[in-house]
């Protein structure tokens, strides 16, 4: 079942533009903490406004199945935007991390106040022995920190 009127729930281009504009206003774009603080209110507002739109549709008897799928779609988009802006901020030149939805979110059954369960898959620096701790390069570690901080 496709999401009905996704632009009414979240205008991805507008949110991405707002994030980039906020980052352009920073003195030091290499300071990842400042980057996160600049875009956090934008992403938080986008998620809140989209959730309110979905909730209002639900209350008007649009159907619970539609609301669950729309909420999952909204969170997908916010996570994708977070990853996109995060990659730009940490200057990641390659794709070395994937985020997978699990649980109810992974089944497209995300209720309004449900936890958002995700799994991060990252590529280690080199082959490692099973007993050794995972070693990540600085770019990967910075992107993981950037994304998790904003999604937490």
Which key terms come to mind for this protein?
single chain; 152 residues; mainly alpha; flat
Task: Output mean pLDDT.
Answer: 87
Please trace the helix and strand order, writing H or E for each element: HHHHEHEH
Distance between the termini: 29 Å
Helix content: 55-70%
Computed CA radius of gyration, to the nearest angstrom: 17 Å
Question: Which strand order do you get reading across the main beta sheet?
Answer: 1-2
Number of helices: 6
SS content category:
mainly alpha
What oligomeric assembly is this protein in?
single chain
What general form does the structure show? flat
Write the layout of secondary structure elements.
Elements: H1 6-9, H2 12-24, H3 32-59, H4 64-90, E1 97-101, H5 103-106, E2 118-122, H6 138-151
Antiparallel strand pairs: 1-2
Helix pairs in contact: 2-3, 2-4, 3-4, 3-6, 4-6
Describe this entry's structure for a reader.
The structure is a single chain. The protein is mostly helical and about 150 residues long. The protein contains six helices and two strands. It has a two-stranded antiparallel sheet with strand order 1-2. The longest helix has 28 residues, at about 30-60.
């Amino acid at each position: 079942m496709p999401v009905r009127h996704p632009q009414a729930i979240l205008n991805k281009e507008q949110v991405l533009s707002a994030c980039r504009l906020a980052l352009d206003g920073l003195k030091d774009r290499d300071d990842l903490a400042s980057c996160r603080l600049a875009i956090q209110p934008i992403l938080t507002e986008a998620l809140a406004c989209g959730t309110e739109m979905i909730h209002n549709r639900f209350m008007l008897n649009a159907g619970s199945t539609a609301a669950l799928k729309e909420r999952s779609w909204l969170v997908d988009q916010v996570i994708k935007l977070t990853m996109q802006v995060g990659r730009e901020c940490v200057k990641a030149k390659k794709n070395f991390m994937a985020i997978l939805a699990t649980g109810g979110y992974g089944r497209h059954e995300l209720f309004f106040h449900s936890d958002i369960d995700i799994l991060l898959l990252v590529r280690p620096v080199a082959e490692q022995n099973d007993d050794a701790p995972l070693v990540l390069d600085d770019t990967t570690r910075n992107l993981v920190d950037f994304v998790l901080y904003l999604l937490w």
